[in-house]
Amino acid sequence: METDVVGENGEKLTSDEHYTKEEMQQIIKLAKALHINLVPEIDTPGHALSFVKVRPDLMYKGSLSDYRGKHNVERVAMLDLDNKYEETLAFVKSVYDKLLDGEDAPLHGVSTVHIGTDEYYGSRESYRRYVNDMIQYIKGKGLTPRIWGSLSAKPGTTPVDWKDVEVDIWSIGWQRPAAAIAQGAKIINITDIPTYSVPSGSNSQGGYGDYANYETQYNRWTPNDFSTGGGPRLEASNPNILGGGHAVWNDNIDLHETGLTSYDIFKRFFKSMQSTAERTWGSDRAAKTYAERVQPASVYAPQSNPDKTVAEEDLFKINPETVKDYLAKKVQKTEAGLNFEKDSTIEGLVGDAGPSHVLKLDVTVTGDGEQTFSTSGNNQLYLADKDGYLAYTFEQFHIQFNKKLEKNKRYQISVVTKPQVTEVYVDGEKG
């Protein structure tokens, strides 16, 4: 998300790929129009790598010995609440102020703010003090604070005022739901087993799997039932239970590139969303088990197309005889076919295509240097990229195939989309 925060070391708090202020405001306004409570989450004092990069002097340098199995690598994403408490708190608040205060702030208009607070491995008392200070700070802005429940794992004497705080119960070991309610909190059941997905591309299903265990979630989970994580089953009528949820965590990108796109992440999110929606709705007419569910003809909303399926009427075949039917500019018909210059275009064709589609080309490269065949937003298909390879760019990926097209030679090319795979064939040979 856009900010102007830059460290003395030149590091920017905002990543290169981010939402601008204008984009965030559009999303917030759209959410309100759809009666969705959009809750931004800005994690501290743990999971705070972006903060530490800007202010490495605020990295936690204390002991991790109280937490079995935790290593020094944890420090790079932890803020120092032991030795630099006031400085750390002031820095975090300054960032929140930029994001929340004023009509031109990126998050102007939200009503609930998630402040994180999970998986911090420093001093328990400093942690409790920080959580309480941040809660009061957010309440002071007239907003509702939401946090990841962690006080059961952080016992101490420093008081934390949880009255009307929304608490995500993700792990019974970190936070017991009844204890949170007793302290005045409103709780949300997002127990990691079975609601967590950590996309890897393996297509596995289970706890922290590529897909969450959405079948177990449907069969054994409800917002008041924490038994899948070893917790209690509370009364469904308890007014302090706000509901339930599920989560997709792209943690694997810290270790290796998964190759997954936003489409792939959506598929994992949506699969869990079906179970979450049906179990939070709580109808006695719902199927008793996941296997007994009856799916509608389409699981998606009318006039939506998240699978990016190309409709029959949008298929196209462009050649010298049909080019007149399209919005073609500076495209010349010749005996050999259609001739394209660098500024030639055919507009209005289908954009991104999902799995199970084929694009066939009968093409000859006659120019030098980078040769872009088609563009959809920032996504591009290259007959020759800057290195001369047949390639494409999609979202953050630039994929090269092991093929360079010879100049003035005619090729039959097929680009085939499959789940998690795009294949290219040149004269029948896989590239």
Report the total helices: 8
End-to-end Cα distance: 38 Å
The SSE string, one letter per element, is HEHHEHEEHEHEHEEHEEEEEEEEEE
Largest sheet: 6 strands, parallel
Overall outline: globular
Summed over residues and divided by their number, the pLDDT gives a mean of: 94
Q: Residue share in helices?
A: 10-25%
Q: Per DSSP, what share of the residues sits in E-state strands of 2 or more residues? A: 15-25%
Radius of gyration: 26 Å
Low-confidence stretches: none
Quick description:
It contains 8 helices and 18 strands. By secondary structure, the protein is α/β, with parallel strands linked by helices.
Descriptors:
431 residues, alpha/beta, 6-stranded parallel β-sheet, 4-stranded antiparallel β-sheet, 8 helices, 18 strands, globular
Question: What can you see in these coordinates?
Answer:
The chain has 431 residues and is of the alpha/beta class. It is built from eight helices and 18 strands. The strands form five sheets. The chain has a six-stranded parallel sheet with strand order 1-2-3-4-5-7. It has a four-stranded antiparallel sheet with strand order 11-16-17-18, with no helix packed on it. Helix 5 (177-182) links the parallel strand 4 and strand 5. Helix 7 (214-220) packs parallel to helix 8. The model has no long low-confidence stretch (mean pLDDT 94).
What layout of secondary structure does this protein have?
Layout: H1 21-33, E1 41-44, H2 49-54, H3 85-100, E2 112-116, H4 124-140, E3 144-148, E4 166-169, H5 177-182, E5 186-189, H6 192-195, E6 196-197, H7 214-220, E7 241-244, E8 247-248, H8 262-281, E9 327-334, E10 337-347, E11 357-364, E12 371-376, E13 379-384, E14 391-394, E15 397-400, E16 410-418, E17 421-426, E18 429-430
Parallel strand pairs: 1-2, 2-3, 3-4, 4-5, 5-7, 6-8
Antiparallel strand pairs: 9-10, 11-16, 12-13, 13-14, 14-15, 16-17, 17-18
